[in-house]
Amino acid sequence: MRKRTRTKFTPEQKIKMRAFAEKAGWKINGCDEKSVREFCNEVGIERGVLKVWMHNNKYSLLNGKIREIEHGLCLNTHSNDGDGSSSS
User: Where does the signal sequence lie (predicted)?
Assistant: First the structure.
């Protein structure tokens, strides 16, 4: 028996899938089935492929987003420290 070939996504598909997953709360089962089918048809993937992609990417993409937010907050809290400017 041969292994299934690895699915390769275009950058556009990845962007659309991430947006859909974020809107859906990273859960495909709670979504309206019609909207899932329409999305899969639009992007050109099967429902099962979307489900596996969401499961595989949920934590890595969420962790990246959290790091971006934390990094942004760190930059904002320290942006004027020690730069010699006065607030008076």
Answer: none
